């Protein structure tokens, strides 16, 4: 069978799909992977055919911006539907005819690829969602647009009006059924693969058989690293990383050096590509700082993980039974930080600007309180009972075969 996989250019979205693609290819399936440049090597390494599409993010600022580039009451997460609609307007003309000629048996797509959902319906191709984060229904709203339910304020009327107009234009252009904002995030396909265990999903019991919670999709990655893993033997290990998007956190990293320099633990600090090593200043002897770390291998040695709470990092931490201290940087990460806290898997700190003392106290609390480790290991066992990328491949192939038989 032939599959189109459509994704957005983010490691948190792409990484969970790669083991699934590799498994499908190993079973003889053909995968054509649409994602912007920058992911070509990763896509081709797992045996898929790479197809790039172009984005123009410079034209995606929300309308009616005020002084300082922000609208009163505007939260950055509320720009997401605006971006998704603008991206669809730009991408669909690039790919629609290609997809028509490819004649795939199914389109697999990330929920943020609204253009892929539209293309599948316009071309009458069966569609399957691949969700790297929480499933959404009437009980779980990931990006609330109105006050309450975690939202800090309403979306300003000019912004909402622009979104409604853009949705109407898009639907008219492609003869697509009208939808509203919740229809962007809450839409479900006949099959939805969710890359977390049902035990971690809020209101997990409310999702029906259309949702398959396969857990983390983890397989050894196709990359080489000179990271000195042997240096992590023989002492407790604290791992600090703010991911690949919100990692321009120089003051936070300096606070970590102040908090944990000279302690008995080994500290691995992953500072990303936006900070120069010299900016960190002299490193204590118990620190290993690197722009890149092989996260899975480091987590296998880690006792406590200080993280931004991205879903990939959270799932990888729990895959190894590692409790966390979470500094969320956006609304979805705030949801994850609260989930980690309420389930006893770690603690949440409100801001990465919290003092070195608060950070040290939080890490020490998680490190010494055995209950955090016990609960993280319980979630690790729940993850081990999921099928990961193999279960995802089984579900995709089985669903596609049944769909073709009915056609």
UniProtKB/TrEMBL annotation:
Highest taxon above the source species: Bacteria
Entry keyword set: Transferase
Pfam families from the UniProt entry: UDPGT
Gene3D superfamilies to which the protein is assigned, alphabetical: Glycogen Phosphorylase B
Molecular functions per Gene Ontology: hexosyltransferase activity; UDP-glycosyltransferase activity
GO process terms (BP): antibiotic biosynthetic process
Family: Belongs to the UDP-glycosyltransferase family.
Protein name: Glycosyltransferase, MGT family
Native source organism of the sequence: Ktedonobacter racemifer DSM 44963
Lineage: Bacteria, Bacillati, Chloroflexota, Ktedonobacteria, Ktedonobacterales
């Amino acid at each position: 069978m032939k599959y189109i996989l459509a994704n957005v250019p983010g490691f948190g979205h792409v990484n969970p799909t790669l083991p699934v693609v590799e498994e499908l290819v190993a079973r003889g399936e053909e995968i054509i992977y649409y994602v912007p440049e920058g992911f070509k090597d990763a896509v081709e390494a797992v045996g898929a055919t790479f197809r790039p599409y172009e984005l123009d993010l410079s034209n995606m600022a929300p309308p009616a911006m005020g002084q300082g580039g922000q609208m009163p009451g505007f939260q950055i997460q509320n720009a997401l539907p605006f971006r998704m609609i603008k991206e669809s307007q730009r991408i669909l003309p690039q790919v629609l005819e290609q997809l028509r000629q490819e004649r795939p048996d199914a389109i697999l797509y990330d929920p943020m690829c609204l253009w892929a959902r539209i293309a599948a319906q316009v071309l009458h191709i069966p569609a399957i969602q691949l969700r790297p984060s929480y499933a959404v229904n009437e009980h779980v709203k990931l990006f609330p647009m109105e006050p309450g339910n975690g939202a800090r304020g309403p979306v300003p009327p000019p912004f909402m009006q622009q979104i409604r107009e853009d949705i109407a234009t898009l639907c008219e252009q492609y003869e697509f059924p009208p939808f509203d904002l919740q229809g962007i995030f809450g839409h479900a396909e006949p099959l939805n693969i969710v890359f977390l265990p049902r035990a971690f999903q809020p209101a997990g019991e409310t999702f029906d058989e259309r949702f398959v919670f396969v857990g983390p999709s983890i397989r050894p990655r196709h990359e080489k690293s000179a990271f000195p893993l042997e240096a992590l033997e023989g002492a407790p290990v604290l791992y600090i990383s703010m991911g690949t998007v919100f990692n321009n956190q120089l003051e936070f990293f300096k606070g970590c050096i102040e908090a944990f320099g000279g302690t008995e633990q080994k500290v691995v600090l992953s500072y990303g590509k936006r900070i120069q090593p010299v900016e960190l200043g002299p490193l204590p002897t118990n620190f290993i700082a690197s722009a890149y770390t092989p996260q899975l291998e480091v987590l296998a040695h880690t006792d406590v993980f200080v993280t931004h709470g991205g879903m990939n990092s959270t799932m990888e931490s729990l895959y190894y039974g590692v409790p966390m201290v979470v500094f969320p940087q956006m609304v979805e990460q705030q949801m994850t930080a609260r989930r980690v806290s309420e389930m006893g898997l770690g603690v949440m700190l409100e801001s990465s600007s919290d003092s070195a003392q608060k950070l040290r106290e939080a890490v020490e609390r998680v490190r010494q309180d055995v209950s955090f480790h016990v609960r993280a290991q319980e979630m690790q066992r729940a993850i081990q009972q999921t099928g990961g990328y193999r279960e995802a491949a089984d579900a995709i192939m089985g669903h596609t075969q049944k769909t073709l038989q009915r056609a």
